[in-house]
Amino acid sequence: QLSASFEDAVKGLRGQATISDTNVDNALRQVRRALLEADVSLSVVKKFIEEVRRKAIGTEVVRGIKPDQKFIQVVYEQLVKLMGTENTPLIRNNGKPTVILMAGLQGAGKTTASAKLALYLKSQGAKVLMVAADIYRPAAIDQLHVLGKQIDVEVFSISKDVQPEEIAAASIQKGCEEGFDCIIIDTAGRLQIDTAMMEEMVRIKSAVSPDEILLVVDSMIGQEAAEITRTFHEQVGITGAILTKLDGDARGGAALSIRKVSGAPIKFIGVGEKVEALQPFHPERMASRILGMGDVLTLVEKAQKEVELADVEQMQKKLQEASFDFSDFLQQMRLIKSMGSLGGLMKMIPGMNKIDSTMIKQGEAQLKRIEAMIGSMTPQERQNPELLASQPRRRGRIAQGSGHTQNEVDKMLVDFQKMRGFMQQMTRGNNLGNPLSMGN
Ligand code: GDP
Ligand code: MG
């Protein structure tokens, strides 16, 4: 009887279901497959999925969507968070040249990315110098000169008989003397990770003390991205990455692997062979691309917005009609408890922007008591709070039924009346203070 009426009280509230161990399995499979298809490395996928699973259990799901769809949204948000939420810009020095060292395997797109970056920085007003420190491939120095001409950026080179670290050191001296703002050092890659390449990178690094060491990774390289990143990061230490060739059909899972393995942000993406084809990295766009479930994400977002809007509109109407009852009270407390929906509510109700997290915590403790008491009310009592105000015997019964003292029930009733008054004031645009401090 008691639990049935509680069911009733809860019906129509926002949290219709939560993500649980049982309903999440199907979604986990979908997400795992999507990540692997996007070429996120297997070990990264495993770790990531377990983390998200733990985080997602217990998450409330709004009407109109399924727990597994909601789970995919949680995964998406976690992906975005993991990749840094916002774009991380390049480090820039004031007064002395910013030194950027390009690292990566042969063919990854280092030389192209050097020119792209040079053009990007030039367009921001910087005086840029590119440095040809790849002395192994015969055409490498020429390639950089050609690109330099194309974008009208000076290229510094010596000859293939001078060691890369000496070339790099000389370029820094020139850069300082001639007032360059940025020096981009293009280095040699190998087809695979090898000791000689790593040692050379370390020597160049000590010769120039770069501000940025950007690992250039071909997004088509797939699963290997994690291992390449690990090696470069352990042996040289990277400050960021550029993910290239995203104009192809790579889903971009390398972005997740790079970030997860090194902790370094992806700063740019390459989207074509042309020197203009460089874009700042945006975690949200990449997360959508990696998941490849844009339709699900849109659906969840839409359902959530609809529920929030419906809740707020319904509440405002009730307040205007002064029919705010105990069920609404419970719903309000729940709304306040979940910050996400509070955000939506705050936008619509003037003066609601003074609620902080301590108040939310206080509200949570109260919510438990209130839920129990409202659960012990009859439907008439819930709809008609005046019945309780006028009949102490009803309050006694509710106290017994919910395991509280009559005093506590009386206090809850006072809280309710304050909340109702507060809500009514709010819709008129007056701020009476903190709605959750009542009864304390
Ligand atoms: P490096 O050996 O690391 O210096 O690589 P390169 O800069 O010489 O690039 C290798 C090849 O990849 C060249 O043919 C480039 O045109 C091509 N490339 C580089 N970046 C991109 C990109 O973002 N998109 C596409 N489609 N091709 C790229
Ligand atoms: Mg090159």
UniProtKB/TrEMBL annotation:
Q: Could you cite one Gene Ontology molecular function of this protein?
A: GTP binding
Q: Which UniProt keywords apply?
A: GTP-binding, Hydrolase, Nucleotide-binding, Plastid, Ribonucleoprotein, RNA-binding, Signal recognition particle
- InterPro entries in the cross-refs: AAA+_ATPase, P-loop_NTPase, Signal_recog_part_SRP54_M_sf, Signal_recog_particl_SRP54_hlx, Signal_recog_particle_SRP54_M, SRP, SRP54, SRP54_GTPase_dom
Is S-adenosyl-L-methionine set as a keyword in this record?
A: no
Report the GO terms under cellular component: signal recognition particle, endoplasmic reticulum targeting
Query: What reaction gets catalysed by this protein?
Result: GTP + H2O = GDP + phosphate + H(+)
Q: Where is the SRP54-type proteins GTP-binding domain?
A: 265-278
The protein's Enzyme Commission number: 3.6.5.4
Looking at the record, which segments are called Disordered?
A: 379-409
SMART domains given in the database record: AAA (SM00382), SRP54 (SM00962), SRP54_N (SM00963)
The GO biological-process annotations, alphabetized, read as: SRP-dependent cotranslational protein targeting to membrane
Q: Which SUPFAM superfamilies match?
A: P-loop containing nucleoside triphosphate hydrolases, Signal peptide-binding domain
- What Gene3D superfamilies does the database record attribute to this sequence? P-loop containing nucleotide triphosphate hydrolases (3.40.50.300), Signal recognition particle SRP54, nucleotide-binding domain (1.20.120.140), Signal recognition particle, SRP54 subunit, M-domain (1.10.260.30)
Cross-referenced PANTHER family, in alphabetical order?
SIGNAL RECOGNITION PARTICLE 54K PROTEIN SRP54, SIGNAL RECOGNITION PARTICLE SUBUNIT SRP54
| Family of this protein | Belongs to the GTP-binding SRP family. SRP54 subfamily.
Q: Any idea what this protein is called? A: signal-recognition-particle GTPase
The gene name reads ffh
